[in-house]
Amino acid sequence: MEVRLKAPDYASPVLSLLRIVSALLFIEHGTMKLFGFPMGGHTVELMSLAGLAGVLETVGGLLLLVGLFTRVVAFILSGEMAFAYFMAHFPKSFWPAVNGGDAAILFCFIFLYFAAAGGGSWSIDRLIRRRI
């Protein structure tokens, strides 16, 4: 006999909150690269690897924020964060607390979770799916 457990009613809204907060934090990384905001300082060249990362982080973060194409965007951003970790952080040290790669690892696995779970109840994806 198979026992199925139903997810609590608050699981999907909490998933949406995690997606929204993660997206807001992620957008900040992209806008710092592209516009020097909020920190100020230098920006990167758009046609560079860091420029591509800035575009992915800003545009992908905005798409995640509203929950549009959540699974595909999250999968791409998860890969970007894995690439960023091994390209920029891992060569400095094996330990994430030492190499500054904690955020990259967390973003990678949070986005991988969104790729599997979707955007939650507060997403454009959910609205589109209900209308079909």
UniProtKB/TrEMBL annotation:
Topology of the protein relative to the lipid bilayer: Multi-pass membrane protein
Keywords: Cell membrane, Membrane, Transmembrane, Transmembrane helix
Chief location: membrane
Keyword Transferase tagged: no
Compartments where found: Cell membrane
Transmembrane segments: 7-27, 47-65, 72-91, 103-124
Pfam families the record matches: DoxX
Gene Ontology cellular component annotations, sorted alphabetically: plasma membrane
InterPro entries the record matches: DoxX, DoxX-like_oxidoreductase
Record has Cytoplasm as a keyword: no
Protein family: Belongs to the DoxX family.
Entry-linked PANTHER family: BLL4328 PROTEIN, OXIDOREDUCTASE CATD-RELATED
Name the record gives this protein: Putative oxidoreductase
Annotated source species: Faunimonas pinastri
